[in-house]
Amino acid sequence: MSNDALDDMLEFHWIIDMLQTVDVGIVVLDREFKIKMWNGFMESHSGKLPSEVRDQSLFSLFPDINRDWFAQKAKPVFELKTRAFMLWEQRPYLFKFSNYRPITSSEQFMYQNIILAPLVSATGKVDNISMMIYDMTDIASGKKQLEALQVTQSEAQERGSRGS
């Protein structure tokens, strides 16, 4: 094996290792929404091994996900090669994962931001898309606490102005 081939193989290995250990969910889906890749974040939070989910339908594994809604979100990603976003403010989560920090956070489920991105093949076609799932629970919890504090402060000011 040449040094270039060995270098390429070593680089490929650490890239795969990085994808498996990054603290972001990474899922690759084909046009039929069958799972092609499932990283360590997804395994850890779902309890499902990559070997269990590979080539399975996203919707058969997660029946709570509305197929029509998700297909509409994914359509421009496949057809127009653009990204699509799902923000926790609009929809708290796609995957109903438990909050894994129940001591430091009062939230029951993980709030998620999700990015769908096209994976363009060498032929220029998009046969697969990536889904990146970000845990936004700490930010969501902080925002909810801040909003509750603002409401309490506003009510106190209102009571104070009526009492004078």
Automatic annotation (TrEMBL):
<dbReference type="InterPro" id="IPR000014">
    <property type="entry name" value="PAS"/>
</dbReference>
<dbReference type="InterPro" id="IPR035965">
    <property type="entry name" value="PAS-like_dom_sf"/>
</dbReference>
<protein>
    <submittedName>
        <fullName>Diguanylate cyclase</fullName>
    </submittedName>
</protein>
<feature type="domain" description="PAS">
    <location>
        <begin position="13"/>
        <end position="79"/>
    </location>
</feature>
